[in-house]
Write a structure and sequence with these properties.
13 strands, Rossmann fold, alpha/beta, 2 domains, single chain, globular
């Protein structure tokens, strides 16, 4: 079955031992391999990864006969190392492809897209730009100046979008700005929307009802300039005032001093919240113990293309989500299906708290959340969509 199919060479800047790759690379690539596509993955692995971590991933890939080319990640100076990382990707691609031409290149995000665009153009091989968000705009939203370097980067981004044979976007909301940047009518036909999806066999609702549990509101993920940490803490503080048993559970690998400061500003006692750092497997158990989660992100240039991983994972475990407008398709999905609360800018947190507590009193809310996850965020559905893209490009 695999002998007459093109080989897919998947390039990711994230290491396969990283949390994000465990969630958003391995399920898709292993699924494609099980579906009959010969797969090669090229990744940059952090120097801090242990031999046991590498061996565990290697065993997973070997079970599906997936090749793994591990490139170094120069973590001490990642920005200055970009040319070296790019050259390593191009070299690995050329060596792996050799004289083959029945190949499809799949680039996850921007640096791999530059490498695959160069090799694809040189060898006449079709390639996929899996954008995963507007990377250059994320840098600006994080506080970097949108000066000359940004304008040059956006021109390069437009050229990558124009040259790609297929484009995968996380959101429908990103279609319009991309269309405006490229400006050709045929461009829209290259775009497929595949959000950050979830392994529904792993992310499942709790086995026992939560009705009699103390109320647990959660946050899962990192902290940073784009995350509205103070606003999320204020929303929780409003919930705490209305439900004295409420507890804020924060699952993060980030340094937590900013959380302590935000909770202090909101007047929360230390016992009102707790933090934990777990691996990707542990996230499932944490989410199952939550009643709802918060996901508030600063709207900005990049947010239209953003689909937080925590959004689909929360829904899959039956947790409604508090979101804000302007972040991908999240607010539209929440409003349409009644699976959370949309916290608009300037809204009184007490109103959001009251709305969330009313939602949680509806015994059908967890089932609605799970149904939306099954319909829109299933990794099996995503694997089928990638299969369609690969099959289309393989005919060229």
């Amino acid at each position: 079955m695999t002998m007459d199919r093109a080989r897919v060479v998947y390039v990711t800047y994230d290491g396969l031992c990283d949390h994000i790759a465990q969630s958003q690379v391995l399920p898709y690539t292993l699924g494609a391999a099980r579906g009959g596509w010969p797969m090669t993955i090229i990744s940059h692995e952090k120097p801090t990864r242990t031999g046991a971590e590498i061996a565990r991933v290697a065993d997973l890939l070997a079970e599906e006969s997936v090749d793994w080319i591990r490139l170094p990640y120069l973590a001490s100076r990642p920005t200055q190392a970009l040319p070296f990382h790019l050259a390593a990707e191009i070299g690995a691609l050329v060596r792996r492809i050799g004289r083959q031409r029945r190949v499809i290149l799949h680039a996850r995000s921007y640096i791999p897209a530059v490498a695959t665009a160069a090799v694809g153009a040189a060898l006449g091989i079709p390639w996929i730009f899996d954008i995963r968000g507007f990377w250059f705009d994320e840098k600006v939203d994080a506080g970097r100046t949108a000066g000359r370097a940004y304008r040059i980067a956006k021109r390069a981004e437009r050229e990558l979008l124009r040259r790609a044979d297929a484009i995968v976007s996380l959101t429908d909301a990103a279609r319009v700005p991309m269309q405006e940047w490229v400006g050709t009518l045929e461009f829209a036909g290259k775009i497929s929307v595949i959000p950050t999806c979830v392994d529904l066999a792993r992310f499942t609702p709790p086995a026992t009802p939560q009705h009699d549990w103390p109320l647990r509101i959660g946050y899962v993920g990192s902290f940073g300039p784009r995350y509205l940490l103070d606003e999320m803490v204020r929303v929780f503080a409003a919930i705490k005032r209305q439900r004295s048993d409420a507890h804020f559970r924060v699952v993060t690998r980030s340094e937590v001093s900013s959380l302590h400061e935000a909770c202090g500003r909101a007047g929360l006692a230390p016992e009102a919240y707790s933090t934990v750092s777990v691996d990707h497997v542990g996230v499932v158990d944490e989410l199952r113990a939550m009643h709802a989660t918060l996901s508030l992100v600063e709207p900005g240039r990049a947010s239209a293309a953003s689909c937080p991983t925590k959004f689909g994972e929360s829904l899959a475990t039956g947790c409604p989500v508090v979101v804000n407008p302007g972040v991908g398709d999240c607010a539209d999905i929440v409003r349409c299906h009644g699976i959370g609360v949309v916290h608009d800018a300037g809204r009184d947190p007490a109103m959001t708290a009251s709305e969330l507590l009313r939602l949680l009193s509806d015994p059908a809310h967890a089932g609605r959340c799970r149904a939306v996850a099954v319909e829109r965020f299933s990794v099996d559905w995503a694997i089928d969509r990638y299969d369609e893209i690969y099959a289309r490009l393989a005919t060229r």
